[in-house]
Structure prediction request, 142 residues.
Amino acid sequence: MPAEIIPPAAQSPRSATILVVEDDADVGDFLREIIDEETPYQTIVVHDGIRALEKAPQLHPCLLLLDFRLPGINGLEVYDRLQEREETRGVPAIMMSAIEELQQRGIYQLRKPMDVGGVIRMITHALATFEEQHLYKAQQYH
Prediction:
């Protein structure tokens, strides 16, 4: 991505870090590689939900990219717990799974197997929608 085009989410008070929670090391490496190469965002990959709960409040990620099936606690439970914390409440999320409940909670879905274009489009869409919602809310209060 050209350096002169920096999306608003990469300039927000939150870090420009996407937290990827994926237990399959190959998938985690794939996601890290394409995000690091194709976007201005940094990527941190953790391999289970417990580690995600520990790292997310420290990182203040701009986006969560969660696998649903994780050892210990699943991605949906990770999302719910992070929504309870002030440091991570409201962070947009993309869940890699096909669960109907995700749509009801406003969590985007990324289905496996993945391709580079689909991953980048979903990241761009999730972060742009999040920024639009914040701008709209800010305009309502002024």
Strands lie at 17-21, 42-46, 63-67, 93-96, 108-109. The mean pLDDT is 85. DSSP finds five helices and five strands in the chain. The radius of gyration is 14 Å.
